[in-house]
Amino acid sequence: MKTPERIQPNRQVVAFILMVFLSQACPEPIRYSVIEETESGSFIAHLAKDLGLGIGELTARSARVVSDDDKQRLQLDRQTGDLLLREKIDREELCGSVEPCVLHFQVLLETPVQFFEGELSIQDINDHSPVFPTGEMLLKIPENSQPGTLFPLKLAQDLDVGSNGLQKYTISPNSYFHVLTRNHSEAKKYPDLVQDKALDREQQPAFSLTLIALDGGSPPKSGTITVRILITDVNDNAPEFVHTPYEVQVLENSSLDSPVLSVSAKDIDSGNFGSVSYGFFQASDEIKQTFSINEVTGEIRLTKKLDFEHIKSYHVEIEAIDGGGLSGKGTVVIHVVDVNDNAPELTISSLTNSIPENAPETVVSIFRIRDRDSGDNGKMICSIPDNLPFLLKPTFKNFYTLVTESPLDRESRAEYNITITVTDLGTPRLKTQHNITVTVSDVNDNAPAFSQTTYTLRVRENNSPALHIGSVSATDRDSGANAQVTYSLLPPADPQLPLASLVSINADNGQLFALRSLDYEALQAFEFGVRAADRGSPALSSQARVRVLVLDDNDNAPFVLYPPQNGSAPCTELVPRAAEAGYLVTKVVAVDGDSGQNAWLSYQLLKATEPGLFGVWAHNGEVRTARLLSERDAVKHRLVVLVRDNGEPPRSASVTLHVLLVDGFSQPYLPLPEVAAAEARADPLTVYLVVALASVSSLFLFSVLVFVAVRLCRRSRAASAGRCSGPEGHFPGHLVDVSGAGTLSQSYQYDVCLTGDPRTGEFKFLKPIFPNLLVEDTEREIKENPNCRNSFVFS
């Protein structure tokens, strides 16, 4: 495309006016401060909070920090909203002797475009010592000099400013001189040697003193110079400059060694005392490098290229010294005149190379223009060709936004080449051009595609809420917004499944999260659908199935079913002393709500009143005697059995068994002290329940006894049975196995009757009844024992 050579006047004038208007209407800049030499990456301020913006808004709007100079010394952390130092800042390098030292920057935000102006004040630290230009100076003083006369000494330079800069001078103790520190109009401090009493060359022709320059730091730093003083003969007139101050203007593009001006001083003395030599007085390194002075003629010449953008003027102190050592001071002010020697600069801050067709006004690029010259040389006009559907809008100061003027039609034109031209108003005019290529993207014509049609995820139960359990992924072959995929959950096929409380999906990346802790015992697996839709118009979508398998965790401790652990009095197991080794005392029955190896239970005897007497089988919980019982074994035994599952880590439960050794079934069974204490501690509700249950049971038992007694009284064998005898006591509600092996080989029945004596509650065991003779023998026993009031059958 051919770029037009002429500049469009109308568009240039409008852009210039808008730029001036926006620059005047900008809000007050935000201000921060930082100490120089602070490490890179150090925190300056929470910029997002100061601007009233959210942290996510910085990323969404592509926030960035732009400085006025070429070096980007600041950086913005979009994730936290913090303004950080990119590199160490040397205040002396950045600002020199200028105080305050301020670094100007701008904060740029996109969509919509917004600017904020900021200032970072660099605080000085005491990192430089005062330095004299030489290590020694020679001062000639006439012997007729009067007390109180001032003699200028060489000035020390301290790159620091403020209180850290040069504050005062001192000199080594002596009886002839002291130092006076004077303030100059440019905030410089000059040392003057003050004569305290009359000099006598014949008595002391020379002095060697040490001049010390001190700054105001803590602790203060210093520099020294040796002052050699020679007492000379009388020279009573010092040179005087014809004009002071001298002022001259020099073009910044002046050639090297070109003359700047000549200074002249006169001394009315004669001979050697009237001859004058010229030199710079207390000149900085910059002045010494830029200018030179002829000691005889006083002509000042240029020795270094001038740069108006770097230094706009120089204040040069000159000195005229006669042959007698007297000197006069003068000032030369050199103004640097700007010339149009810098072409405009264009810096792209944001660029969008691809724009969807049929889109409304769209930002293509944000850029900044700058001209290092001043005056008309620094004023600029920005333009683009008129035959393109784009507009330039002044945004903030020297920032411009390139936007589309109308919706673009890809079928008409798929690519545009835009030439941005920036021209200054200097003489001659300088310009800069920058080319931007913009392509028009296509519409949404591809639906997202999942990487799998079915996903299987596994999550262990008792997970923490919001746990990431897996991801689904779908891709879209379109570009831009048409390729941005959004994920969502489909309604479950089973209306009973509370999917909304089980899982959620990240709409941006397809990550799946468990919303609550899952319980394998309640839910082993579930399925649901996931939808992936792009952001095109109209939106296209696809679906996939996700199956979640809940893995069992060892979260349930074993639960003991028998003996019952309901807080009531514990069960007591009876063991006859005649039991052999391996006799089955009881069996601990436990279950575990988990599955797999988490539900595999093992049993272990944890504590025993008499170790070695009883043992527990590890796999079935059977409690058996480990040896034959003896008369020396205690009557009451307390066993603690530990039930442990096979999970990782294993869980366990314990149960306490009370075992009572008896000589036979007729031995009275007395409750253990522990049982009585447990009964006494039972809560009232338990007592009420026990009383109610006992009442109902007693009533039922009484009815059965009455019925059986009536039947028994009709029997004719009452006399042959005799009276049942035995010790008083209660018989437990359960029987124990009396076989030698500990397991009954068949079912045994015993006919037990109560004695006819109402004063005793004794039992009498008549004889065992085998199953096939149970009915006949029972009737026969009743006939033979009419005094029995009841009959019990034990298995």
Automatic annotation (TrEMBL):
GO cellular component annotations of the record: plasma membrane
Positions of the Cadherin domain: 26-132, 133-241, 242-346, 347-450, 451-560, 575-675
Organism: Lynx pardinus (Iberian lynx)
Entry membrane topology: Single-pass membrane protein
Signal peptide: 1-27
GO function term, MF aspect, one: calcium ion binding
Official protein name in the record: Protocadherin beta-4
Main location class: membrane
Compartments, record wording: Membrane
GO biological-process terms attached to the record: homophilic cell adhesion via plasma membrane adhesion molecules
InterPro entries: Cadherin-like_dom (IPR002126), Cadherin-like_sf (IPR015919), Cadherin_C (IPR032455), Cadherin_CS (IPR020894), Cadherin_N (IPR013164), Protocadherin/Cadherin-CA (IPR050174)
Keyword Membrane: yes
Domain of life: Eukaryota
Record keywords: Calcium, Cell adhesion, Glycoprotein, Membrane, Repeat, Signal, Transmembrane, Transmembrane helix
Coiled-coil spans in chain: none
Chain ranges passing through the membrane: 687-710
